[in-house]
Write a structure and sequence with these properties.
Elements: H1 9-22, E1 24-27, H2 33-48, E2 53-54, E3 74-77, H3 85-105, E4 111-119, E5 125-128, E6 136-145, E7 158-161, H4 167-170, E8 174-177, E9 184-188, E10 194-196, E11 204-214
Antiparallel strand pairs: 1-9, 2-3, 3-4, 4-11, 5-10, 6-9, 6-11, 7-8, 7-10
Helix pairs in contact: 1-3, 2-3
The chain binds N-oxalylglycine and manganese (II) ion.
């Protein structure tokens, strides 16, 4: 399989336009099916093996805290030097995206960190920004979903609030995105407030990562 240009440039362009115009964007059918299916299986297998940990907030090793009233999902960090074949393909994909962002948005992103995430029924992540004040600034949040036949009644939508200087509008304008299989969402980590609404009866699965600038 050609691992260099996995996503079509028109999809990348749509994402870049969205990031520029409103601070976030989404496209469907992000990965070739075989890769998406394999990642989904890896995620599921790791979860069943008990490889996930309860997610916390703050920086790993610095001010990390378990805060179940804020978020109640489970995560498994991917190890950049021990990626599986399919994880590597995803990173390659993100790398293409990163290069386009650097060119079009005049950023100098040079790093990516990523984890698998599972939200069991009733779990959530309250309204937040993804940015931490660190030397490894998170600029763009990237999420890819793995939930086949996910319906509105399954809950677990990603609620995105409008990026708006007007304080009154900040909490009003919002978009809810269903976490359906092979749908990709990206947003400006420092600017876009968002939350994960409680899922209902099913595990909600995704891979979440951040393009960063390490200085
Ligand atoms: C996060 C997050 C959104 C989602 O992990 O920081 O906001 O839709 N995830 O899973
Ligand atoms: Mn987030």
């Amino acid at each position: 399989m050609n691992s260099i240009n996995l996503i079509e440039s028109d999809k990348i362009n749509l994402l870049i336009d969205g990031l520029t115009e409103k601070g976030w964007a989404t496209v469907d059918d992000f990965l070739p099916l075989e890769i998406a299916n394999s990642l989904r299986k890896e995620l599921n297998d790791e979860f069943e093996k008990g490889e996930f940990d309860k997610a916390g907030i703050g920086r790993r090793g610095v001010d990390w805290q378990l805060r179940p009233e804020i978020r109640s999902d489970y995560v498994k960090w991917l190890q950049p030097n021990q990626l599986t074949e399919f994880q590597q393909l995803y990173w390659t994909q993100i790398d293409n995206f990163k290069q386009a962002i650097n060119q079009e948005l005049y950023l100098s992103l040079n790093n990516f960190e990523s984890h698998f995430a599972i939200y069991p029924p009733k779990s959530f992540y309250k309204k937040h920004l993804d940015h931490h004040q660190t030397a490894q600034r998170r600029f763009i949040s990237c999420i890819l979903y793995f939930n086949q036949d996910w319906k509105k009644e399954d809950g677990g939508e990603l609620r995105i609030y409008a990026q708006d200087d007007n304080e009154d509008n900040k909490n009003k304008a919002q978009t809810d995105i269903l976490p359906i299989f092979n749908r990709f969402v990206c947003m400006r980590s420092e600017l876009i407030w968002h939350e994960v609404l409680p899922s209902e009866k099913r595990n909600r699965m995704s891979i979440t990562g951040w393009l960063r600038r390490e200085i």
